[in-house]
Each structure stands twice: as structure tokens, then as C-alpha cells.
Amino acid sequence: MSDTAYVRAGSVDDAIGALKSAAGDGLVVAGGIVVGSLINQRLAFPRVLVDISRIASLRRIEIAANGEMVVGALTTHDEVLRSPTIKAATPLLVEIAGEIACRRLRNRGTLGGSLCTIGGQGDPATGLIALGARVRLRGTGGGRELAVEDFYKDAFKVDLADDEILEEVRVNPVSPGLFFGFSKIGPRSAMDWTQITTSVALVLDPDRVRILHARIGMNGVGATPVRPRATEAALLSQAARNRDWRALGAVLEQEIHPQDDLVYSAKFKKHLGVVSLRRAVERACAMSGSA
Amino acid sequence: MLKITLNVNGQEHGLDIQATEMLLDVLRSRLGYVGTNKVCAQGICGACTVIADGKAITSCLALAGQFSGASLTTVEGLERDGRLDPLQEAFMRHGAVQCGYCTPGFLMSARDLLNENPHPSRKEIIDALRGNICRCTGYKKIIDAVADVASQRGPAL
Question: Does ipTM top 0.90?
């Protein structure tokens, strides 16, 4: 028998108050997929479940006064897929959402849940890193904002205090001249956990020959989502045509640290990392017409 | 204990549950809707798919407390006035059932698709069923059955 308490939070303040009272023994429930899975596997025995799914303020999708797009943590992957606002501002996030699991899980799984609980195995984190997005957190001590890549500490560990929740993601809409690509590699096309996922966002010069700015988000190549900065820098020195993938691959392989698992060896993952980066970059350039 | 209400296939139920109980277990063990099947309990296989407030969901990973007040349709609710859903008829016609364990989940995922898009393409059908696993049929007959219903013109199916 379970003696877990259930708090249906009506507001963010309710939720963080309940988490503070639970003193580290509370578990936030958004869409419930990961929490359900942990409970079914007897991997979580929370004293308090804090259900945030009915907090309306966490569902907004809007362009803020400063031009940023704000996507509430409770936005489901299905809502991302259907949102005209997100499609106009950051089509990359829509493309990524379409590749997540399946309809029945996209209907419940939330953006915030993905970032907080399976960041290292979720696809949205990679797109948000490539787009330079930030997460907005709120706890009893107030609010703070972090770059998505700085939110991750270690496998399944995020920079979130016991009494904090992720309220929303903030991202600048893409401007003309920004090109993006996404590549996901796994044993199957459907219902697969992320093995290797790469998102890139590139700014090209007006002649579309040189890459002026590059941001990369990757998953499956370490314990957390990563932003391989040396590889970003290496891309800038390359012409958009005839890139030296041997040299770029060597840089990437130096800065990613995948682990062996039951499916792939670390060595093979490094190779897949390079393949996936190359595909994502080529897709971005194909979009720009320069590849 | 947690008090919840559920509307299942048009019938209201009020019950007391544990905070950690999943909707699937509430449906099967407390309310007797055993058409919804439990297999992996990990969200992978899709056998437990039901429709909640108009959307297909994974009932094995659905904390029942989150669904208080929701309207659910399970496979038992597909039959109307003694007539099977056109999808059920098509599954029989096409031999889309072998052991049958996955069938309720496939029917609910397909129903969810057709409710939104009555005439999907074969590609859209395949995408909508990608979260359901069948280890007998090889999928072709299931997809054929859904495509058959999808190709029927006329009023809402």
C-alpha cells in the first residue's frame, strides 16, 4: 500500500509551497509519463506527488513584449506540433516534436517534463540548445533563468532545487539568415529513445559560403545534453561547400564522451555523433540552398 | 486516499484511490473494464491506449488522480447500440487480429486518428499507429483495415 500524498496545485506558488513542505521528498507530476514509469518500476517512492497539470499559467505559448517566444512548461509535444506561434518562430522545435515517440505519448508528454526528467535522452533539449533558449525556474526564493545547456549537471540531474519548478522556456524567434537542421539516429524510426540526436542552427553570410555563427545541441554523446563549443568554432573556419569532415569529426570526437551501452559502443557513438552532426549541418545548408 | 470521478464510456464513477494508482489499474481492477490490456507498464507497447477527453493516452503511465473529471473511452465504448465500430468490423474482415492482446490498443489509436482526420493517407495511418506493437500480424492487415475504414466516404465514421 502506498501512503503517498497527492497535492493538486492550483498555482505555481501552491506547487513550490508543497515542494518546500515535502523537503526533498516531493515529486512534480506534469504529464505523468516519467513519474508513472518510475512508480511502475518501483524506482520512485515519493512522499508527496505535486500535480502541476492544472496550472493554467504554465500552458501559455506567446511572443513576449521583448520579442522572445515563451513556451510554458506544460505545453505538450502535440501542442508544440500544432502551434502556429511556435511554427512561425522556431520551426525546428516543431520538426523535433514530430519525431518524439508517438501520438499517445506526445499527447501527454510535456516540454518541461522532457527537459527536467529525461534531458539527456530527449530531443527537445538539443533543439533548444541550438536555438540559444533559456529555462525560467521559480522557487520559494524567487525566479532565475539559465541557458538550457547550463541546466544539466549529470545523468538525470538538473540544476533545480527541491522547491523549484521549471516554469517556461524562452527563446528568440529565428531571424532571416538563420538555418537549422535536425538529425536523429537510432535502431528504429518509431518509438525509440534518443541514441544520437543533433540539432544545429547556423548563420550564413549573404553569399551563403561561410558559416558566421553556429550553435550545436547534441544528445546521446555523454551523460547530459551537450553544446560542443570547439566543434562550433571549427565549423566557422569551414566554407559551406566542401567541408573537411575528417577534420571536423576529429574535433567533435575530442569533445564528446559517450559511454558504452547495451546497444552501441562508445567508439561507435563517436562515429555516429559525427554522422549525425554532418546530416544536421547538411540539412541546415540544404534549407539555405548552399549545400 | 484520493477521491476522483471518472466518466467511462458515458457512465459516471466516483471512487477512492491511492495517489500512485495508474488509470489502467483503476479501469481494470476497480471498474472492471478489462478490455484495456496491460503488457509493458512502461509506455512502450500501446496495448493500454484509451481516449481521454478526446485524445489517445497511455493509461499505464497515467496517474489516475490527474484524470479526475475526465471523460474516457475504452474499447468497450466503441460499440454503439449493439453495433460494432466500423474499425472493429474492418479488423474482422481483414483478419487484423491474431492473438488479440494488442487489438484494443490499436483500435483506440486508430479511432483517435479517425476522430481527428476521417480520411488519413496510408502514411498518416502508419505514423498514428507507430506507438502500438503487434507481435503476430506483421502490421499489414491492421493498416489495411484502418485504411479500408478511412477510404469509406460519407458521414462521420
Answer: yes
Which of B22, B113, B127 lies nearest to residue A36, judging by beta carbons?
B22
Judged by CB atoms closer than 8 Å, whether chains meet at A37 and B46 is answered as no
Looking at the complex, report in whole angstroms how far the Cα of residue B105 sits from the nearest Cα belonging to chain A: 10
**At residue A98, what are phi and psi to the nearest 5 degrees?**
-65, -15
Model confidence band, residue B156 (pLDDT cutoffs 50, 70, 90): low
A-B Cβ pairs (cutoff 8 Å, strict): 89
SS3 state of residue A45? coil
- Find the helix or strand (DSSP H, E) in which A218 lies: strand A211-219
How many whole angstroms separate alpha carbon A169 and alpha carbon B6?
A: 33
Of B42, B57, B113, the CB nearest to A108: B57
**C-alpha pair distances (Å), A192 with each of A43, A72, B45:** 21, 25, 12
| Chain B residue whose CA is closest to A39 | B20
10-residue mean pLDDT series, chain A (291 residues) = 87 97 95 96 94 97 97 98 97 95 96 93 95 98 97 94 97 91 84 84 86 95 96 88 90 96 91 96 81 43
Extract the C-alpha cell encoding B135: 507481435
| CA dist., res. A2 & res. A44, Å (int) | 11
According to DSSP, residue A208 is labeled: S
- Note whether A105 and B58 are within 8 A (CB): yes
CA separation, residue A199 to residues A127, A183, A268, A280, B116 (Å):
5, 7, 19, 6, 30
Q: Which residue is listed with cell 554523446? A: A221
Out of B2, B43, B65, whose CB is closest to A105? B43
CB pair distance less than 8 Å for B61 and A37 = yes
Whether A166 and A160 have beta carbons less than 8 Å apart is answered as: yes
Q: Does B24 touch chain A (CB under 8 A)?
A: no
| Cβ contact B42–A40 (<8 Å) | yes
Q: How many residues does chain A have?
A: 291
Residue type, B129: L
pLDDT (mean) for B1-24: 97
Q: What are phi and psi of A284, to 5 degrees?
A: -60, -45
d(Cα A118, Cα A79) in Å, to the nearest integer?
Answer: 19
Judged by CB atoms closer than 8 Å, whether chains meet at A2 and B109 is answered as: no
Residue B52, SS3 per DSSP:
strand
Question: CB distance B58–A29 less than 8 Å?
Answer: no
Nearest to A103 among B42, B56, B66 (CB): B56
CA distance B152 to B129: 19
Which residue type, as a one-letter code, is found at position A225?
P
pTM of the model: 0.94
